[in-house]
């Protein structure tokens, strides 16, 4: 609490600093945040945006801003390369606008080597902070803006929550809500436990309070966010579980939809399935990362489930919640993956009934145990497997997506269709998109739509209310 007061003082001072800067440059101080990676980062960016808006800056859609932040991801190698690509471009923006402040934050800045590289080779970067001290953003920004310092401030461990930060949502009718931070699972390929730290759950009362405030502010759909939401409540003393938290969130009046991301197959409880069953507000979409269909590879990944236990969980979900749309993440080419292991993955894909799958080529992250494994799979073998996997996923996904053709379903309208004049695009409870005739006034509304025609991974529809 003390800390959040201190940060409020910096916010107050920054208002003056920005006001002066506006006068000096004779126009508004513009900011832009480029967000890479997952919904956690997207939510963090909304918090950074909240602070920047509060101190009097204006958001612009392009990177030629006065304050430019990169909220980075480091889960795969190409995520890192993406940042360096951007930096090469914005260096020139800074030459044209010497007042420009360039900052980098997010998961990549929790990696010492990357921070050192920025510090030494990217001298035009003014501000670096990590995920553990994002709550200190006002103080760090003040040091750069008002005191002209170059600030590199990262913390090894989380030492404060970011919950006090005012968020500025990109979309007014839906919002992410952090329910926990960090991850204790240590899947052997994954850098997240090292950059996001140990699991820590927020108090249920605080989460419910945040959801209520969001609903008062017009939000209809919330997504509860955590690296492993089934672990919610471990470490809290009051016996709260993810299932009980979901029920409390569903009880918030005026809230129409609840989503969550991401559950871990090793501990998706029966209690959770029953809670979903009883609560129509919980969206019929479960993202259940498979990673591999081979029990041998799963063990080497430290996933703590097998092909068989995963498939029986999927059967249970389809049996108890037949309307659920199931999606997944799959990694191809994990060290030691043989053709036989890969066949196991294909088999799970053909049996699980996924409506969509995100497929990733295994990326060696230094610092993770798997990076030390000796039997890395050759690139050409991985590329071939990837092609075969994508073809199979597409074949099965369109089957899963077809099944609601002809039904009338509630849809939350998200945007005017950018490709087809006179159409809007909305999201079904199961997370599929539907395009139908409508106009801007429908954005943020829940409407009933007839799913006239399935197009494989989306629908064309028509309003029915
Ligand atoms: N290589 C490839 N994919 C990875 N993921 C996480 N770490 C790696 C890695 N080292 C994928 C997993 C996870 C998703 C968010 O990113 O599939 O579920
Ligand atoms: Fe990474 Fe595994 Fe934790 Fe997900 S559960 S963040 S894949 S370590």
Automatic annotation (TrEMBL):
Residue ranges occupied by any Radical SAM core domain in the UniProt entry: 169-400
Protein's UniProt name: tRNA-2-methylthio-N(6)-dimethylallyladenosine synthase
Protein's UniProt keywords contain Metal-binding: yes
Binding site for [4Fe-4S] cluster 1: 38, 73, 107
Cofactors demanded by this protein: [4Fe-4S] cluster
Self-association state and partner proteins as the record states: Monomer.
PANTHER family given in the database record: CDK5 REGULATORY SUBUNIT-ASSOCIATED PROTEIN 1 (PTHR43020), MITOCHONDRIAL TRNA METHYLTHIOTRANSFERASE CDK5RAP1 (PTHR43020:SF2)
Keywords of the record: 4Fe-4S, Cytoplasm, Iron, Iron-sulfur, Metal-binding, S-adenosyl-L-methionine, Transferase, tRNA processing
Family: Belongs to the methylthiotransferase family. MiaB subfamily.
Residue span(s) of domain MTTase N-terminal: 29-146
InterPro entries for this protein: Elp3/MiaA/NifB-like_rSAM (IPR006638), Methylthiotransferase (IPR005839), Methylthiotransferase_CS (IPR020612), Methylthiotransferase_N (IPR013848), Methylthiotransferase_N_sf (IPR038135), MiaB_methiolase (IPR006463), rSAM (IPR007197), rSAM_horseshoe (IPR023404)
Organism, as annotated: Stomatobaculum longum
PROSITE patterns to which the protein is assigned, alphabetical: MTTASE_N, MTTASE_RADICAL, RADICAL_SAM, TRAM
Protein task: Catalyzes the methylthiolation of N6-(dimethylallyl)adenosine (i(6)A), leading to the formation of 2-methylthio-N6-(dimethylallyl)adenosine (ms(2)i(6)A) at position 37 in tRNAs that read codons beginning with uridine.
């Amino acid at each position: 609490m003390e800390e959040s007061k201190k940060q409020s003082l910096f916010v107050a001072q920054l208002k003056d600093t920005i006001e002066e800067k506006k006068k000096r440059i004779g126009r508004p101080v513009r900011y832009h945040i480029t967000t890479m990676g997952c919904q956690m980062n997207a939510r963090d960016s909304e918090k950074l945006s909240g602070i920047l808006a509060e101190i009097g800056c204006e958001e612009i859609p392009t990177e030629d801003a006065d304050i430019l932040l990169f909220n980075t991801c480091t889960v795969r190698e190409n995520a890192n390369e993406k940042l360096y690509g951007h930096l090469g471009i914005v260096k020139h923006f800074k030459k044209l606008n010497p007042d420009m402040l360039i900052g980098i934050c997010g998961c990549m800045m929790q990696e010492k080597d990357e921070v050192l590289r920025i510090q030494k080779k990217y001298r035009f970067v003014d501000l670096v902070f990590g995920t553990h001290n994002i709550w200190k953003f006002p103080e760090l920004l003040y040091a750069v803006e008002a005191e002209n310092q170059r600030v590199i401030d990262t913390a090894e461990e989380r030492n404060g929550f970011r919950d006090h930060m005012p968020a500025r949502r990109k979309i007014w009718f839906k919002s992410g809500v952090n329910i926990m931070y960090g991850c204790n699972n240590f899947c052997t390929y994954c850098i997240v436990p090292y950059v996001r730290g140990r699991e820590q759950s927020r108090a249920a009362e605080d989460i419910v309070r945040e959801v209520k405030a969001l609903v008062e502010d017009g939000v209809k759909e919330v997504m509860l966010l955590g690296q492993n939401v089934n672990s919610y409540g471990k470490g809290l003393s009051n016996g709260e579980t993810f299932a009980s938290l979901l029920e409390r969130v569903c009880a918030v009046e005026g809230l129409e939809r609840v989503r969550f991301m991401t559950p871990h197959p090793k501990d998706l409880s029966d209690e959770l399935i029953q809670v979903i069953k009883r609560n129509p507000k919980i969206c019929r979409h479960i993202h259940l990362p498979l990673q591999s269909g081979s029990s041998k590879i799963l063990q080497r990944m430290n996933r703590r489930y097998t092909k068989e236990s995963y498939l029986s969980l999927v059967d249970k979900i389809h049996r108890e919640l037949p309307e659920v749309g199931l999606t997944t993440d799959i990694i191809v080419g994990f060290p030691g993956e043989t053709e036989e292991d890969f066949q196991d993955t294909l088999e799970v894909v053909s049996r699980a009934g996924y409506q969509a799958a995100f497929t990733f080529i295994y990326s060696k992250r230094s610092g993770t145990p798997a990076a030390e494994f000796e039997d890395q799979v050759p690139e050409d073998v991985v590329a071939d497997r990837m092609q075969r996997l994508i073809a199979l996923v597409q074949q099965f996904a369109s089957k899963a997506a077809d099944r609601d053709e002809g039904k009338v379903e509630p849809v939350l309208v998200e945007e005017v269709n950018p490709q087809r004049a006179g159409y809007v695009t909305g999201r079904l409870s199961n997370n599929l998109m539907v395009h139908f005739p409508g106009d801007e006034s429908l954005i943020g509304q829940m409407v009933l739509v007839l799913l006239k025609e399935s197009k494989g991974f989306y629908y064309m529809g028509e309003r029915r209310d």
